[in-house]
From TrEMBL:
Protein name, as recorded: Phytanoyl-CoA dioxygenase
Organism, as annotated: Larkinella knui
UniProt key word Oxidoreductase: yes
Signal peptide from the UniProt entry: none
Pfam families per UniProt: PhyH
Cofactor: Fe(2+)
């Protein structure tokens, strides 16, 4: 009992001392991807980069937008039949969930704990707050969508390194998530080596709880949780709500206003791992916002699957992007084959 009291007092002392001198932090300069460095020369890079002939976008403009705004939009990047095929497959998994061990998070059911879909009632999987995790591990269609050649080309240019898929989420309704940045939670060896993509699986309505993002917020000083820029549930002095309040306040102080994003099916939004964003309120609960969210890193930063206990993960290569097999569910790797014939 005395030991526990001493630990609490010691933690309280550390918290008071930290808050008296707390200051925002930033990524270490020598870890930054080339485009985030102060000496980045985009024009010179584009001249040397081997852009595929069928890449339908202005790479120089995309890279300047990424550097200055922290996001880019690729319009009509993915064929509609791929998008429809992926969602039809997801619906089949939910309808026949007893067959699958794909992990899910269902708020108001399992308190944010990862649970195999076979252990979740169908009505919960279909409701607001339900997410499928790492769905791409089981789905060839998801693998192909998240590494489509247009997406792979952009990722290679942003990092100028070999890239890898880090994580994925699929959900039917808007997240309604508070303002946040991804890097404190989606972690690899190098925090600055993180990019994300939001792929709408249907046209987005303004009343469906659309995504809100804050252009240029990736350049703001990073929040200090007391454990550095990464959140630790056990050791951080501040909470995710404190983080949200910091971002909202700091964006307002810097004149950065939230922008509501209304994309069309087949478009892709890429955002920087430090771009502030969130989900707005769902005004019409009857409206869905079917979404596929993907995170990416570099091979140097993420050399094996985060659940892999050995030295090396089983991996596939799709358009130059590495995708690791999930070692906790190898039996269901690529069990959904809807996209096997897509070219």
């Amino acid at each position: 009992m005395e030991s526990k009291l001493k630990n609490k007092l010691r933690r309280l002392y550390r918290m008071i001392k930290f808050r008296m001198k707390n200051a925002p932090l930033d990524f270490e300069e020598d870890t930054l991807p080339w485009i985030d460095r102060s000496d980045a020369d985009i024009d010179a890079f584009v001249k040397k980069f081997k852009t595929p002939k069928d890449f339908p976008y202005d790479l120089g403009k995309l890279l300047r937008d990424w550097r200055d705004k922290g996001y880019v939009i690729l319009e009509n990047a993915i064929p509609a039949e791929w998008i429809d095929g992926l969602w039809q497959e997801v619906e089949e998994v939910v309808e026949n969930n007893e067959k699958y061990s794909v992990k899910s998070l269902v708020y108001q059911f399992n308190d944010g704990k990862e649970t195999p879909v076979k252990d979740v009632p169908k009505e919960k999987l279909r409701g607001i707050g339900s997410r499928l995790l790492e769905y791409h591990s089981s789905s060839i269609a998801a693998k192909k969508v998240m590494t489509h050649r247009h997406l792979a080309t952009f990722l290679e240019a942003v990092f100028n390194e070999k890239t890898t898929v880090f994580q994925s989420l699929i959900f039917k309704y808007g997240s309604q998530q508070g303002t946040h940045q991804d890097y404190p939670w989606v972690r690899s060896k190098i925090a600055s080596h993180l990019a994300a993509a939001w792929i709408p699986l249907e046209d987005v309505s303004p009343d469906s709880g659309p995504l809100v993002y804050y252009p240029g917020s990736h350049r703001l000083p990073k929040f200090n949780f007391g454990t550095g820029i990464l959140f630790s549930e056990q050791d951080s002095f501040y909470t995710p709500d404190d983080f949200t309040n910091y971002l909202n306040k700091t964006c307002a102080e810097n004149g950065i206003k939230g922008t509501v994003l209304l994309l069309k099916k087949g478009d892709v939004l890429f955002w920087h791992g430090a771009l502030a964003h969130g989900g707005s309120r769902i005004n019409n609960p009857a409206l869905t916002r079917k979404s596929f969210v993907c995170h990416y890193s570099t091979l140097r930063s993420y050399p094996k699957h985060r659940f892999e206990e050995g030295e090396k993960s089983i991996a596939q290569l799709h358009n130059g992007v590495t995708i690791y097999a999930n070692p906790t569910n190898l039996a269901e790797e690529d069990i959904m084959t809807a996209g096997k014939d897509w070219k």
